[in-house]
Amino acid sequence: MTQSASEPVAFKKDTVLVIFGASGDLAKKETFPALFGLYSEGALDPSTKIICYARSNITVQKIREMCLPYCRKSTTGNDEAKMKEFFKMVSYVQGAYDTDDGYIRLRDEIESFEAERGVTEPHRVFYLAVPPSIFLTVAGQVKKNVYAENGITRVIVEKPFGDDLESSREMQKGFKPLFRPEEIFKIDHFLGKDDVRRLLTVRFANPFLNQSWNKDNIESVQVWFKEPFGAEGRGGFFDSTGIIRDVMQNHLLQILTLATMEEPVANNADAIRDAKVDLLKCMEPLGPENIVALGQYGRSVDGTKPSYLDDDTVLNKKSKCLTFTELTFAIHNDRWEGVPIVMRAGKGLDEDRVEIRIKYKKNTSGMFKGCTPNEFVIHFHPKPTIYMTFNTKAPGFDDKLHQINLDMTYAQEYKKDWVPEAYECLIKDAFLGNSANYVRDDELDVSWALFTPLLKYVEGPNAPEPEIYPYGSTGPKGILE
Predict the structure, then answer these.
(1) Which of 5, 242, 270, 362 has its CA 20 to 30 A from that of 117?
(2) pLDDT tens digits for range 220-263
(3) Could you state, in order of their start, the residue ranges of all structural domains in the chain?
(4) What residues act catalytically?
(5) Residue-wise burial string across 387-423, b where 16 or more C-beta atoms lie within 10 A, e elsewhere
(6) Superfamily of domain covering 16-158
């Protein structure tokens, strides 16, 4: 059965969801809390069967205890009873990832459930919450042993999708003979964030805003990612990844792409992803000339916080791994030609903030010449907000200008409404077959082609020395503001 990526189906009863890596951190902190969130708000059909699969010898009760601290309260209360009912939907199969035995037991569990419910057209969703090194191993076993031959199969894959253009293409090549493109859902969880999803609506449903969103009116586009903590015991992972792969090539590029792409020709998955790819093709590949600053955090000024190299899990004590990078981008099209576009990301900084800031040009003539320019801002983290700055007259007799925020934040307007978390949105989209907020292979290709030359430069034999900046500071000297 072929299902178009542009045509989501209705929610199917008696869906089977299998979570591979169910005993791991991702499942504990994101997947199960998202599933419970959907269930508690009535957005997950209670006929769904959830099967956990992992190598660990644990129980469903243990999984419940592990994920409980990460589950948020529902808007309607009675969470204890809902949690009890939710976990009645869950079972556990222990097995290895690289041999048939466990998958045969998994197949028996799935087929037993489907037979009991009288399912004639299976709908099976497989969530790969496992390390990238075994993506293809698990995917091959799914295809061999539990693929829904007479129904619908969907496979959710977590990032990273390779670590450069070559490895990304190798992964794509490995999946290609196993599943059709519409069966693969590649998660970048930033695409599930509500304010990221709202960005397209705010831009394109308000023509006055989109018509001013161009080189004639915009001074600059800035994307900021700041974390107030360092590697914190994750040095083994981070030292082979670095800040560029960790957040810039994926999360921040997704935000930038949605903020700068042209309006899609239709409101469907293929049209939206086509528009993103078209925008990325207008960007020059990144190289040394795009670098504004490269940094690695050192000890804090007061000596209480260790440097990156002091972390016991960073084994290479001469590592040049970047914990801070600032880059400029050039978009060569009629809308953005010549507009400065800046992306910054860093760990061990002075605050916790993820945002995009569209800065308008100053008023250069008339009675209010030189007044404070307008800005359109979305804070994605830690407190999601979306607003535009607006000049008006201050209260009283004085004609002094005053700038206020035109606030579009959900928390103000929809105080009693449930606002889904990123993983809640994305998991539901996968159940419905809506791939608009998932990453397509050609988008991966062009995004990795954009960043791979830069990565080869900063990680090559003649890699530049990162500037050491104090833990808890604003970052290296000379960053653009």
Answers:
(1) 5
(2) 999 999 999 999 888 988 999 999 999 999 999 999 999 999 99
(3) 16-158, 192-420+440-470
(4) 251
(5) bbbeeeeeeeeeeeeeeeeeebbeeeeeeeeeebbbb
(6) NAD(P)-binding Rossmann-like Domain (3.40.50.720)
